[in-house]
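**User:** I keep going back and forth on a fold encoding question. It is easy to fool oneself when nobody else works the same problem. Could you pick a protein and write out its sequence and tokenised fold? Could you put it straight underneath, so I can go through it closely?

**Assistant:**
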Amino acid sequence: MTSNTQQRRVAGYFVAVILAAALVAALIAVISSGGGDSSSAAAEGAFGTHFSGLEERRVAAGVPTMSDPSAGGAHIHPRLAVYVRGEQVPLPPNIGIDPYQPPQSMAGLHTHEGGDVIHVENAADPTLGQFFEIWGVPFSATELGPYKAGDSEQVRMWVDGTPSTEFGDLVMEDGQEIVVSFGPSNGPPPPLESGT
């Protein structure tokens, strides 16, 4: 009887240890995965590189992939600087490029190294709104990412140093310098500083 009781206790102990180890392993897996792509994107912040949903955003924006032979867009490089309350928001690398997909599936509007250069390749008449849609960052005359215009703060835009109200409708051109800002409704445009 004593031997049976001890064997049951030992067996119960081993089962408890195995279950505890399995639970710890499962928790570690959930924590290290960050809960999936949406949690990763949230961790990167509102202006990070958002890979989750990229293909759906590309299609919704009407932007072809690099491998679409019918697109025939020019290869141009406008520059973009984004500011929130006077602080520059870095343009992240690999907007429009999912590292888990082949290179041919990258969007015809994308970034490579970061800095301030938008690569327009294989996208005809590309608009700034299409780029922001692919990026996954809301953008309009009243919204920039999570920021909404109000009485004292607005979304403002300058193109080559001149105020513009085209916002998402702006058709981008080679060498164009675009500055988008959320903040006080007066004052000069923030600078478009040289990118990397």
Notes: The domain at 53-184 is CATH 2.170.130.30 (Ferric Hydroxamate Uptake Protein; Chain A, domain 1).
